[in-house]
Amino acid sequence: DSGVTQTPKHLITATGQRVTLRCSPRSGDLSVYWYQQSLDQGLQFLIQYYNGEERAKGNILERFSAQQFPDLHSELNLSSLELGDSALYFCASSVGLWTGYTFGSGTRLTVV
Amino acid sequence: TQLLEQSPQFLSIQEGENLTVYCNSSSVFSSLQWYRQEPGEGPVLLVTVVTGGEVKKLKRLTFQFGDARKDSSLHITAAQPGDTGLYLCAGPMAGGATNKLIFGTGTLLAVQP
After folding, report:
1. Does A83 contact chain B (CB < 8 Å)?
2. Which of A60, A108, B82, B88 could share a disulfide with A46, CB 3.0–4.6 Å?
3. How many residue pairs bridge chain A and chain B with CB atoms within 8 Å of each other?
4. Enclosing H/E stretch for A52
5. How many angstroms from the chain centroid is the CA of residue B96?
6. Which of B42, B45, B88 has its CB closest to that of A100?
7. Inter-chain contact B42–A4, Cβ cutoff 8 Å?
8. A36 to chain B, minimum CA–CA distance in Å?
9. Is the pLDDT confidence value at B2 over 80?
10. What's the pLDDT tens digit per position in A61-107?
């Protein structure tokens, strides 16, 4: 157990739907990062939050959004889902802005 | 655009063999990290190298950061089935004041008993 908790572990949904992925960072970690992993693109950075504030954005689609709550847990919202959104979504956390990541076990999203 | 290219992409070896995985870029990185990812799990941080020319050892794993800080290598001595997994190098993206990482293309290692 890495200390980073992601739920759900698996999610199957239809095209056009909206889903929410949840992440609880390791205790004491203030930074939360979201990554998408697919076979053809590898691990791609989506977005980072630090202590409740958005700090960096990667190649995140406009259909995707995220937030970090006062208790530091984070949610990634994916809407108008397309088949190509099927992937593993990972959350990672770190203590500060310059330290290594601790990853969760991921959410496998399948859009049918 | 910063890219981290890893080679080889796939590696299947017998237990006891040695191997080296390479991570190359045309960009300079302030540091590089190596992660191992097992099926159904997230990547796990193995090591961070921060100084050009630095060598770090973790049991049978030896990590080296290139002198110019554009490349890194991971050498495994006497590989064991437990070393099987996806090996990823990663470095901080240029610009900004945060530690968002760019990940390499990955090397999938299978060690046969």
Report:
1. no
2. A60
3. 60
4. none
5. 24
6. B45
7. yes
8. 11
9. no
10. 999 999 999 999 999 999 999 999 999 999 999 987 667 899 999 99
Q: Are strands A107-111 and A10-13 parallel, antiparallel or unpaired?
A: parallel
A61 CB-near residues (< 8 Å, 6+ apart) = none
d(CA A94, CA B11): 31
What is the spatial distance between Cα B93 and Cα A44, in angstroms, rounded to a whole number? 12
Residue A2: pLDDT band (50, 70, 90) is: confident
Residues in B closer than 8 angstroms to A42, CB to CB, are: 103-106
Nearest-by-Cβ selection for A43 from B93, B99, B103:
B103
In angstroms, the CA A64 to CA B113 distance is 43
